[in-house]
Amino acid sequence: MTVAELVAVRRVELRDRPAPEPGPGEVQVRVRAVGICGSDLHNFVTGAIGDMPALFPMVLGHEPVGTVLKTGPGVTGYAPGDAVLIEPAVYCYHCEYCLAGRHNLCANLRFFSQPGEPGFLRELAVVPAANLLTKPVQLSDAHATLFEPLAVALHSLSLGRPQLGETAAVFGAGPIGLLTIGCLVLAGITRIFAVEPVPARRELARRIGATETIDPLQTDPAHALRSLTRGRGVDLVFECATRGDSLNQALASLRHGGRLVITGIPYEPSVSLNLHTARRREIQIFNVRRSNRETSVAIQLLCEHPRRFLPIVTHVRPLAEAQMAFEQLEAYADGVGKLVLCPA
Fold it and tell me: Which residue from 47, 52, 16, 38 is spatially nearest to 172, judged by alpha carbons?
């Protein structure tokens, strides 16, 4: 089978690897589409995700859609030919965090696309049958890949708890930021600011539901947001960029007692955070660790609100163009939002 492997910083190569066979409780799937995540881009650009170094060669991609080819012993409920979504996280279900319902913090977590756990930029994969969900027929393969990042956005909203009448700002209008904006609209937030330096992504943010956009290259976003709220500051900020000084700009944008949800992953191993601003205003800070049982709701929203979310997918390319796809994303070229690679 063909596999796209990250073999060095900024270098992806296509290689031929043996096809994996399913064992008990497992399913072999043909991977049909995989969305490229911001964390995949981190590995491509820097050879790490924050303080977690890549292990070359490695296979990226954790937003997969596929078709069942074979089922291993003991598998029920799925058969060859079934179109499926594939959850990338494998939980133990018996540690203290799983038993408390916080599966995303599982002490024994396996996550496809991390070092030692190949992701889905390959033609075939074997996964636990428990990680499969039926793909809705009304969603294309490319659009269905949004199920995983949309679940992350929903998890961030569960932490931030947006309330009717509040104002919200989203720093970064990449795919996660755009999905967050769409979720805020559905949550009833009627004034949503998007802070984004790339013009095409500001336009996408408006299309998804942002009421006002701010170019941080032209104006200080904290000053702009406080001016737009008559000096008060916004109630809630979702930080989906974590680039440069955006974390501190987000803090400075909040009202006293406001809430900051950090969804993005900084490129740097460590970052500077102005705790004095957070302390004086008693800002509540929440960190997002992927998602936690929000997938079913994400699938439902994709089906019920296609105009809100599906425009986020702007480009679809074959797996053979993986190198060019990552280069396009790094350069924000051709108005790219979410880019999907198709192994099949």
Answer: 38
